[in-house]
Amino acid sequence: MTLPLDITKLADLLRLAAKQEILPRFRRLGGNDVRSKSEPADLVTEADEQAERLIRREIETLAPSALFIGEESVAADPALLGKLADADFAIIVDPVDGTFNFASGIPAFGVMASVVWKGETVAGIIYDPMGDDWVMAEKGSGAFLKRPDGETVRLSVAGPRPIETMIGMASPGYFFGETRERILANLAKVRLFANYRCAAHEYRTFASGHVQFMLYNKLMPWDHLAGVLVGTEAGGYAARFDGSAYLPHHLEGGLLVATDKDSWQILHDEIIAA
Question: d(Cα 53, Cα 158) in Å, to the nearest integer?
């Protein structure tokens, strides 16, 4: 499909923000450079804020008609998020996904952007500043790993396997009460699950064929839009817990991503519904 902007320019912009504002601050944050938002583990750093300012400023030139939604912009103005449902053209950015890792000196963080056009995600980019490469997808065109030297590798999810041998990513911290206890107990049915505290790297791992599923309850567009598009363009299947399609304006309903629809149903029945 014809995109409303050049995705390669958007990808280069994420790299620029990482080079100028993020990497120079990695393991060099001062005491006043890290703050808590909603809870002690929900952090924002000077790198998040400065990178988003740079990206927003450049997007105003690159795509002046786009609604810009950044994680830190929404933190400052929560009403901004409600505009996404009615926007014909929007660019959603997570300047530092995995801020807890970044602030802790753990080299597992990313920069993510997605493009929404007339209510659907049409492009997604996940940039890894440490590896200096992108995972990206355009709707209907497949998912690819791209490096700055031009090398491009097509991505494909793993093949299906029995649930007892599945490896996946799950974020149980955003389930609560009895539901959390039940989900954690049911996850014992899989071989192994992990949580990187970084959706960017979790989606990259899935789209590259290394794990069979991902499970999330908290849905913020900057965390999932790019990754879901990359994962499905790599051959995976994604839906909310009730089986409905995940759309850009959805903020609840949970999200299960699997290698194929049959595996999704098995995981749903055994982990979510059981």
Answer: 37
Q: Three-class SS of residue 239?
A: strand
Q: Looking at the domain assignment, is residue 1 inside a domain?
A: no
pLDDT score, position 84 = 96
Residue 28 lies in a domain: yes
Report pLDDT for 49: 95
Q: What pLDDT score was predicted for residue 163?
A: 98
The helix-helix angle for 46-62 and 7-17 (nearest 10°) equals 150
Rounded to whole angstroms, the Cα distance separating 109 from 106 reads: 8
Residues 103 and 226 in one domain: no
The two beta strands, 43-45 and 255-258, are: unpaired
134: CATH: 3.30.540.10
Last residue of a domain, one of 154, 188, 205: 154
Closest CA to 201 of 257, 127, 146: 127
Q: Of 115, 131, 154, which residue sits at a domain end?
A: 154
Residues 230, 16, 250, 100: is their CA dihedral positive or negative?
positive
Q: Based on the structure, what is the number of domains in the chain?
A: 2
Residue 39 pLDDT: 76
Q: What is the pTM of this model?
A: 0.96
Query: Does 67 share its domain with 124?
Result: yes
267 class by beta-carbon count within 10 Å (0-12 exposed, 13-18 middle, 19+ buried): buried
Give DSSP secondary structure letters for 75-109: HH-GGGGGGGGG-SEEEEEEEEETHHHHHHT-S--
Q: What is the pLDDT of residue 3?
A: 78
- C-beta pairs of 25-33 under 8 Å, 24+ apart in sequence: 26/102, 26/105, 26/107, 26/129, 27/105, 29/103
Instruction: State whether 50 and 134 are in the same domain.
Output: yes
In which residue ranges of the chain is pLDDT below 70?
Answer: 1
Same domain, 177 and 125: no
Q: Identify whether the C-beta of residue 44 lies closer than 8 Å to the C-beta of residue 37.
A: yes
